[in-house]
């Protein structure tokens, strides 16, 4: 059983039986849409769908729509949107900056960030980072897959990778940055309370932690709140999921 | 490169270069200890250690000790504890109850629960659970691996699996249970504030959610606080990591 099929089994087991696809096109009930070759393959060979079967579509702008498969061959599929099932929900104004990890771990971070309601994901290069090869298109595919599964109506934006120093130099005035560092003195809940109601971004360092010059740069930056995620050492991907969950519970849309 | 070696690479990249092993025996500086065959293999073939190399040991009771490898062959290893490096830290009084998932996902949950400071892990069987075959010994191996890597000085206890109804029937008077349910009206932070300072356990349902009779049973139980983890659908393993992080930040040892 392939990964996609395994995930389908999970979805069925979860009662999340509606197949949801992200499309780029505008959604309205008048015109059929052509799906991509990857979506066609997914519908036909993984999900065993056929003409007449119903799926759901979203595009990040027009809400969620029911749609009927009009044609489905080995090479092409057309679907026709029917009723709109849900209005578009606002995109969470929360960013995640992270130092890219191994491919499977990066996929995990993008998946969890999507589920946990991040609006934009920004890979940043740090001294101890595990890789400098970042395939932005691949990250976007992970984000789309996760959005399809967690019933989000949008896909987090993937920002172009850049060195951490550049991201800090160009940092906007109107956004706080919660930088997670095991050596920080302040707790996450304290940092979020201290920062107050501006929009936030969360920065997770690489497995090796920040280099001393990076910690200095962060400590001296006016937007940065250094904070620690408890007394145990977390893997970078655990830290990402944990920090995002804390943010949502304390200052975000889980309140 | 095998999984163990990959994780070694991660540890080195993370500057977490000390090899840490959990042992059952008492730790003191007088007598050498024999390691298990699995530990012997790990030291020799995965970590390429030899006699004279130094590692660290912990047993959940006596703190962390430096130790020197005295002998290491294909079949047996002996190590001699030297100096005690750290005193024992208290075991977090937080429990995780979860409906067992596929093997890889269960490993993930045990690993994250260990990193996030859970004292005991209790597999509970629910109507929509993905499996009824639970290998407690395997869960313990995952917990030991994770404790060795996250520098915990103890290993979470794995409690014997039982049906959710039995766990609720035998529930202790002095512990709250935060039951995560997407249909609950209360937020996690509200539930934790409402419950106050008793010890807590956190219950994560299966991928398919709780069955109606399970939700009823939870809603009617005096120890239970039903709460939701935000507006998006989380995978069960994401929910586990997210709820534990929220607990630690709001009511646990991350404050």
CATH topology of the largest domain in chain A: Alpha/beta knot
Instruction: Give the overall silhouette of chain A.
Output: elongated
Name the average pLDDT of chain A.
90
Which class of secondary structure composition applies to the elements of chain A?
A: alpha/beta
Tell me how many strands of chain A there are: 12
- Strand percentage of chain A, roughly? 15-25%
Give me the CATH architecture of the largest domain in chain A, please: 3-Layer(aba) Sandwich
Measured by residues with Cβ under 8 Å of the partner chain's Cβ, the largest interface is:
A-B, 48 and 48 residues
The level of helicity of chain A is 25-40%
| Secondary-structure element string of chain A | HEEHEEEEHEHEEHEHEHEH
CATH first level of the largest domain in chain A: Alpha Beta
- What's the CATH H-level homologous superfamily of the largest domain in chain A? SPOUT methyltransferase, trefoil knot domain
Q: What is the secondary structure topology, with strand pairs?
A:
Two copies of one chain form a homodimer.
Chain A: H1 3-13, E1 20-22, E2 33-34, H2 37-46, E3 54-58, E4 64-72, E5 77-86, E6 94-98, H3 103-115, E7 120-125, H4 136-150, E8 157-158, E9 162-163, H5 164-169, E10 176-180, H6 188-195, E11 200-204, H7 212-219, E12 224-227, H8 236-250
Parallel strand pairs in A: 1-3, 6-7, 6-11, 7-8, 7-9, 10-11, 10-12
Antiparallel strand pairs in A: 2-5, 3-4, 4-5
